[in-house]
Amino acid sequence: MISYEFIARNQGLVYKFLLPDFCPFCQKHSAFTLLKGYVVEGEEPYLDTFKVIMRCNNSVCHEVMIGVFDIDLNVNGYLDFKYIEGGKQPIKHFSENVSSISPDFIKIFNQSEIAEQQRLTEICGTGFRRSLEFLIKDYAIRITSGKEDEIKKMLLGNCIETFIDDKKVKATAKRAAWIGNDETHYERRWLDKNLADFKRLIELTVHYIEMEQLYEKAIDAYQYAIAIDEKFDYAYRNLGDAYIRIRNFKGAIEALEKVLELSKPEEVIYEAIGHCYDKLKNFAQARFNYRKASHLNPDDSKLYYKVACTYYNEGQYTSAIKQLESALKIHRSQHEF
């Protein structure tokens, strides 16, 4: 921000104010030449504004615009800067990954951003909420085969709950949807949240989706490494982890079982394989691998708990109780308990 002093021609008073060092026309950092200043009376008391006609100092620009300030609000003697009238509205740029998932999300988000910059604050929130719905549904369609029509017809909250598995994406998307609904309803439920909070949650959701897409690129790299060296066990290990991240549990099982062939048995590998079978609802195979892991680390109470869950999911409640009792016995014997 740059400090200026200028006179209001219709009042004869000199005002001090700060302006951003950025021109909305040429999109460059620049100072401004002040041309004329006027006080404009508001429709209600204490709503007067000071408007300054000014020109960009950039030699390739020299566009003219108007800076607007609130006269009745000042900090340390400086008028409160409100906005600049005129210029090109800057848009937010998203990665190629996001563009490939949902180009409509980017279009709607930036149109909503322009509405906000033009102070259309009563309607821009609805646009951001719509952009979130396009992002989530297009993402769900991309990662779920054969469910496109179902996803398109679902309410956003149900879509997030049913088709989004990644914990970080799900958590942020759910919160964004809750706050975003306030932008479309008559009464607000989240009184301590505002549009800025909503936009931050959308951007965080985008970030987590992008992070997940990076795993797809990592898979290509690990497969290339394996093509060069078929006995590269760490490539299989990382490939299995990447497959789990994108919920390709069958691919993960295949890669992780290859790790067991190439290296000594490890608790963490058996547990990961058990997790994959759990997700595929093959509880017998999940239990088999959890037991393999527990044989390697009999003091890990969580493995007994996971075995109990497989029994519970099959309706074998007596067996589940026995495993839970074993888990509690181990847990109580540990000093931190």
Short description:
The chain is of the alpha+beta class and 337 residues long. Helices cover 56% and strands 15% of the residues.
SSE order and pairing:
Layout: E1 2-7, E2 14-19, E3 32-40, E4 49-56, E5 64-75, E6 78-85, H1 96-101, H2 103-117, H3 124-143, H4 148-153, H5 156-163, H6 167-181, H7 195-228, H8 233-245, H9 249-262, H10 267-279, H11 283-296, H12 301-313, H13 317-333
Antiparallel strand pairs: 1-2, 3-4, 4-5, 5-6
What does this structure look like?
- The protein has 337 residues and is α+β, with helices and mostly antiparallel strands.
- It has helices at residues 96-101, 103-117, 124-143, 148-153, 156-163, 167-181, 195-228, 233-245, 249-262, 267-279, 283-296, 301-313, 317-333, and strands spanning 2-7, 14-19, 32-40, 49-56, 64-75, 78-85.
- The strands form two sheets. The chain has a four-stranded antiparallel beta sheet with strand order 3-4-5-6, with no helix packed on it. It has a two-stranded antiparallel ribbon with strand order 1-2.
- The radius of gyration is 29 Å and the shape is elongated.
- The model has no long low-confidence stretch (mean pLDDT 90).
- Report the average pLDDT across residues: 90
How many β-strand stretches?
Answer: 6
Number of helices: 13
Radius of gyration: 29 Å
Descriptive terms for the model:
337 residues; alpha+beta; four-stranded antiparallel β-sheet; two-stranded antiparallel ribbon; 13 helices; 56% helix; elongated
